[in-house]
Amino acid sequence: MSDQPWGDRDSRGEWQPSPLPKPGSLKNLWDVLWPYNLIYMALAVLVWLYLTPSLETTKNFEWGWMLFVYLRNVALVTVIAGGLHLWLYVAKTQGVKFKYNDKWMARQDKKFLFGNQTWDNIFWNLTSGCLIWSAYEVVTLWAFSNKLIPLVDFRENPVYFVLLMWAVIYLRYFHFYFVHWVSHWKPLFKISHYLHHKNINVGPWSGLSMHPIEHLLYFSGVLLHWVIPSSPAHAIFHLLHAGVSPALGHTSFHKLLTGKDDQGLVADHYFHYLHHRYFTVNFGVQEFPLDWWFKTVHDGSPESHAQMMAARKKKAGKAGADDPA
Ligand SMILES: [Zn+2]
Ligand SMILES: [Zn+2]
Hints:
Mean pLDDT: 92
Strand content: under 5%
Number of strands: 2
Order of helices and strands: HHHHHHHEEHHH
Structural class: mainly alpha
Oligomer: single chain
Bound molecules: zinc ion
Number of helices: 10
Radius of gyration: 20 Å
Strand order of the largest sheet: 1-2
Shape: globular
Distance between the termini: 48 Å
């Protein structure tokens, strides 16, 4: 992916990797796990085992355990998004090497709260983001405790339990594509999704920087576990994946360097970076081919770009033809 010399920037300071390959739909069962989704899954299991109140406790809504869930989620986002921000944007350990553009987070820009992009993004993460994530989690745990939704026990159905953990990733991808696509419907974009798209240049905190209406839709995928027999572990993984994975998906860095000779972890989210740049393409994720199937893909190639421009022209022409004036 990073076979182009990283220093080749265009006149606007943009650097781009080679065009993105189409992912296999079911061929990539392991690829889709390794490494990040497996890390998120392991983290979710640890959170479920050690940082989640027991089903006995969650039978009744009480401020103590509900506040604990919220503060734990705040801590998760702060460690992951905050850690990436400190590493890449404060310490600037690799400068703009492997960065998709050569810009940093905006300061003194009135379109952001407090005139500062980082503080604006942090605000939406820790208030609306973590509150709505935690509210979904609290109500789901309460529903499991009171046997209002179907509960699966690992000891009784270990194979189903593990397969469903893996399937959570795919449930997320489908749900995200459609919810995100709907969020670009003009009226909804105007009242909610515009807030996420204020970030054209993105950083780790931009991932979960969304309007409360968008948070309500974005985290609603967990409601699938109200229907599909699941356990708190599945619901926690679903929400945690939605809560923390956008941080890595918005770093703006293709590779996170950890050693000499450009060694490092591939962060590789040029796909979503292009969504922030062009708005009308790449509603899903690069790991699963929904955008290829629905012809909303921009893989970074000139052909893809020409297709996007043609689609826009067609849409503009149609709008013009519909216009009675
Ligand atoms: Zn985004
Ligand atoms: Zn969008």
